Each structure stands twice: as structure tokens, then as C-alpha cells.
Design the sequence.
């Protein structure tokens, strides 16, 4: 697949010192795993995904059972991995579910050790939104219970992560993707980790920014790259990568 695309620190679209400083700080936090202010929904399960995507996730996974091997699924921005755990519990050994989150969530012991330092605003650094200690402990316990059901879990950025060189039959990313700082990089990277013939359910609300033309240009770029795209409404799309499409998808180079 080659090296993941790197985010350029100085680009034509970043013209002010403030913007350059903001991006430099973002990349610095990416290296250290310290983030805040993202506000993704940590306890999202499959019913919430179905409502958000306007598409039944389980039905999409069932399409790939005919391959005769476990279906490889990636939950992009999995939070506490509730949706991923529900898929694993429902389908058992017929699926291998992996997840990626923005930061490494602390262990129960780490959280308890720092209990006396915890403040309501501390949740922003760990969960992306304000949480008191008891809410934080509940989310940590939920994550570590669900983590046992995941084939892989990575803490990092969807914009540049290599996912251990793996490819996936199904990729789901909506509740976190719309909070991605550089969402087009995330979309391109996710699509390039689809197996030939695979499908991705994505929310492109962040790209649209309330502007239909921006959304339309992105969908056109996917189709120009060879993907089959179904508009599910509300800036949600189902993207299918044809079996014959083996070259990298380059949305960022699309006009």
C-alpha cells in the first residue's frame, strides 16, 4: 500500500501564523496521544449507528458471509467499542472486529490512582468531553470489557494510521468521522484500507459544512477514483470498492 499520506504542516490553505500554530499543535498531540475537545459519543452501539447511517449495519456485514471466511470489520472511531462488541456478540466467529480510537484509554488502575487529581474538565483530555470521575470510570470499565472482543484495537489518527497493513471488508465511521480535524485525509485513508469488493459506511457531514457542492465534489471524486457511491441522505454515503480496483484512491488529488 506504500507509506501513508502525511499531513503537510505548511500548505497553501494555511496562510496565517495562527493556523500554522494550530496544525503544529495538533500534530504534536498526535505523537503524544493527548487530545481534547472532540466530543465523540463513547457509548454508541449498533442501533445508534443504524439511525446515524440510515442503513442497517448488520445487513451489510451479512453480505460478506459468502466469502467462506470471517468478515473483517473496522469501526473507525470506536469509542468504548460498544458497536464493535455488539457485532461480535451477534455474529460470533463469523466476524473479526477491529477498532481505532483517538487516544489510549486509561486502565482502571491508572484512573483510580489519579482519582484525587480528577476534575470535571479532565474528561476533555481523555474522552473529548466533560466527565466526572464516576462517568469516566463507567466508560473505562465498558471499554475494557468490550476490548476483549476486538481482534485489534489501535489508538491513533484515522488520517494517517496504517492499521497494521490490514484490509477490511466493511468499514463503519460516522459518529467520530464528523469530528475529525482533517476529515478528507481520514476518508481517503479508510477507503484505501478497504479490501477489493469491500464497503464503507461514512458520514461526510464535516466535508459538506452545510454546503451541498462540497459534498457533491467529494462524492464525484470517489466515483472518479473508481468507487461506487450510494447517497443515503443527510451526507451519509455507502461506498463500495470494486474487486477490479486495486490502485490507491487519491481523493486529495481530485479537482
Sequence:
Amino acid at each position: 500500500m506504500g507509506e501513508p499520506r502525511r499531513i503537510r504542516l505548511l500548505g497553501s490553505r494555511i496562510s496565517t501564523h495562527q493556523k500554522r500554530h494550530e496544525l503544529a499543535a495538533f500534530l504534536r498531540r498526535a505523537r503524544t496521544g493527548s487530545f481534547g475537545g472532540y466530543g465523540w459519543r463513547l457509548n454508541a452501539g449498533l442501533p445508534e449507528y443504524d439511525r446515524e447511517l440510515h442503513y442497517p449495519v448488520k445487513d451489510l456485514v451479512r453480505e460478506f458471509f459468502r466469502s467462506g471466511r470471517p468478515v473483517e470489520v473496522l469501526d473507525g472511531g470506536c469509542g468504548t467499542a460498544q458497536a464493535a462488541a455488539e457485532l461480535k456478540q451477534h455474529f460470533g466467529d463469523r466476524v473479526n472486529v477491529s477498532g481505532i480510537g483517538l487516544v489510549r484509554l486509561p486502565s482502571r488502575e491508572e484512573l483510580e490512582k489519579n482519582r484525587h487529581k480528577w476534575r470535571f474538565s479532565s474528561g476533555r483530555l481523555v474522552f473529548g468531553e466533560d466527565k466526572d470521575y464516576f462517568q469516566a470510570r463507567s466508560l473505562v470499565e465498558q471499554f475494557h470489557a468490550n476490548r476483549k472482543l476486538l481482534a485489534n484495537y489501535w489508538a491513533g489518527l484515522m488520517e494517517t494510521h496504517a492499521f497494521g497493513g490490514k484490509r477490511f471488508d466493511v468499514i463503519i465511521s460516522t459518529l467520530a468521522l464528523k469530528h475529525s480535524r482533517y476529515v478528507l485525509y481520514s476518508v481517503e485513508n479508510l477507503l484505501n484500507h478497504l479490501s477489493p469488493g469491500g464497503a464503507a459506511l461514512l458520514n461526510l457531514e464535516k466535508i459538506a459544512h452545510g454546503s451541498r457542492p462540497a459534498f457533491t465534489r467529494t462524492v464525484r471524486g470517489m466515483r472518479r477514483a473508481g468507487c461506487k457511491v450510494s447517497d443515503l441522505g443527510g451526507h451519509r454515503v455507502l461506498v463500495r470498492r470494486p474487486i477490479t480496483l486495486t490502485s490507491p484512491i487519491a481523493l486529495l488529488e481530485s479537482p
Notes: The longest strand covers residues 194-203. The chain has a mean pLDDT of 76. The longest helix spans residues 17-32. The radius of gyration is 18 Å.
